[in-house]
Amino acid sequence: xxxxxxxxxxxxxxxxxxxxxxxxxxxxxxxxxxxxxxxxxxxxxxxxxxxxxxxxxxxxxxxxxxxxxxxxxxxxxxxxxxxxxxxxxxxxxxxxxxxxxxxxxxxxxxxxxxxxxxxxxxxxxxxxxxxxxxxxxxxxxxxxxxxxxxxxxxxxxxxxxxxxxxxxxxxxxxxxxxxxxxxxxxxxxxxxxxxxxxxxxxxxxxxxxxxxxxxxxxxxxxxxxxxxxxxxxxxxxxxxxxxxxxxxxxxxxxxxxxxxxxxxxxxxxxxxxxxxxxxxxxxxxxxxxxxxxxxxxxxxxxxxxxxxxxxxxxxx
Length: 316
What we know:
Elements: H1 3-15, E1 25-27, E2 36-42, H2 52-62, H3 65-68, E3 72-75, H4 79-89, E4 95-100, H5 105-113, E5 117-121, H6 125-139, E6 142-144, H7 150-156, H8 158-166, E7 172-176, H9 181-193, E8 198-204, H10 209-216, H11 242-249, E9 252-256, H12 258-272, H13 278-285, H14 287-290, E10 294-300, H15 307-313
Parallel strand pairs: 2-10, 3-4, 3-6, 4-5, 7-8, 7-10, 8-9
Antiparallel strand pairs: 1-2
Helix pairs in contact: 1-7, 1-9, 2-4, 2-7, 4-5, 7-9, 8-9, 9-11, 12-13
């Protein structure tokens, strides 16, 4: 069903080296639960500190010289904006990043420091996406969605290609979900080669637009409350390419409360001394409910937590 995504991912898995690193896979027995043998896929060690650099690099590499000479516009809660800004700069382009006024201030400052022009939009992060897309259209530029873009999704799918090489006995994956770009790309790649691999989605109870949209059978507007998993917060853009992929490819949907997210972040820090984001802690917290026996990969999707968040959950 998603052969084009898989074909592009296979190409990108080769073509994006060495600008995109093959993130290490590390055994984390302290998170084993119910027969699961947990392995952490360390995207927190990826360029710019999160998996987002994969999709951003894929999209920027697909643009022509003429397109790169025009405005590059995106919307982000932090990591995607940093990734697009960095990938654009490597090609001599500058990015404008639209952010919600609810975005983590430290992440926004880092994006600004990387050279982006910042535009702040009040309200839900999906409103920043709408504003960014309109701005790009108005000036003839390129809008790079955090998730609603086939090339971006295929770029994130390179994680799946790596997992197949790194852990041949893989039984399942647990992946945090916001707009669904990460889980869609990985799931398409894994299922194309190993349909038996179980794909599990973790969403924050406080902000779970894709989770509830899947349950409703269509993209819906949902309530959003503050969450440690700020990287997955906000709504899903109408008509997103990720919605049908999530419908077809994800085997299980799990909601995670704030306390388990914080506990997982803290436990990971205690075991590794690494600071991880709430979205990564959320995936770790969902392992027990995933009920998978055997080797299971948990995507540590980012490590750009602010000092304030680190102190709040006990990682400082």
